[in-house]
Amino acid sequence: MPDTKRADMIVHEQEPYNAEPPRSALLDDLVTPVETFYSRNHGPVPRLDAGSWRLVVDGLVREPLSLSLDDLRTAFPEREVTATLQCAGARRADLLAVRDIPGEAPWGPGATSTARWSGVSLADVLARSGPATGAAHVGLEAPDRSPDLDQEVGYGGSIPLAKALSPEVLLAWAMNGQPLTPLHGAPVRVVVPGWIGARSVKWVQRVHVSAETSTNYYQDKAYRLLPVEADPTELVAGAGFALGPVALNCDLLSPPDGARVVAGTTTLRGYAYAGDDRSVVRVDVSTDGGRTWRQAALQQDDHGPWAWCHWRLDVALSAGRTEVVVRAWDSTGALQPRSPSDVWNPKGYVNNSWARAGLTVL
Ligand code: MTE
User: Fold this and answer.
1) Of 40, 85, 180, which is best to mutate to test ligand 1, by the most ligand atoms within 8 angstroms of its C-beta?
2) Residue-wise pLDDT tens digits, 179-200
3) Do residues 166 and 54 lie in contact, with contact meaning Cβ atoms separated by under 8 Å?
4) What pTM was computed for the model?
5) Closest to 209 measured CA to CA, from 154, 151, 164
6) Residues with C-beta less than 6 Å from any ligand 1 atom
């Protein structure tokens, strides 16, 4: 286990390291401590030397660049953004209960965490380089390779130029005021607030401006929502659609499914989050399996538009079994889908169905 993580992480894989915190740990603070923040890796963590690290900016640009960490720090204004990262595989465990998804880890809600990221805006760097006519997408490339794939190149993906030019997209070197750890992408990673975690490329070394989306495996084959009948063992380039902005989601973080609670007042707590230009406006909680609903109090503490919110509601429970159901609404009036079977897909991404937990009240 990396020594930077808490001892009670739920480890899905030791090498490469894939782990999430226990769900209640996400409630300690709206800003997740680094030791608690989930980590998702497709290959061994590269150990890059900050002194010799360079960021190449090339492709459809008027002036290609090669920048050191010092260049980034001195030539561009430093910015800080509090942003939630959510892995597209978060809450897959509930999809696995619907139908098996071979080879994919049973991530819970803990594959969602929030940090204060500091660095420079990718937009400022792109402005220096000058996107040329025809530029429409920005490829982000890193050196790490998955041992399971015959990859010619490392991890990567792309975001549309319009998102890359939004000031919140960072080339970040610090997380919660501390230099990035190797596990989280040192010396520099991309942070794409409001988009699936997969686009926040760690250990970034190249920013490649192009007319097309990236042909990298993780853009062209993985992190795509495939039709239900697709064969996940024969991934076809361009099948389904590439995931981008994070879907409206929520979960109950305390008490957990299966818990025993004492009759009387119990506080239910959790998180809710909506990606890109949406925000969570309401969280409904039911303690009778979805027949009646009450609204939870939302806490966001002015962390800005890219951070999740926590929610809480005191409920009076009497002895017996209670089914808690939680659902969120976003600023477009969208409501989460009702059940995991509505959203099941062959790679098990984006389970944003209503959260459910059974409690025994003593
Ligand atoms: N970047 C690189 N280079 N390699 C990776 O395996 N994993 C991605 C993304 N960036 C990944 C990467 C995925 S799927 C997620 S969810 C986030 O990093 C996780 O970031 P974290 O480990 O800092 O929590």
Assistant:
1) 40
2) 999 999 999 999 999 999 999 9
3) no
4) 0.97
5) 164
6) 37-42, 85, 87, 142, 144, 155, 184, 197-198, 200-203
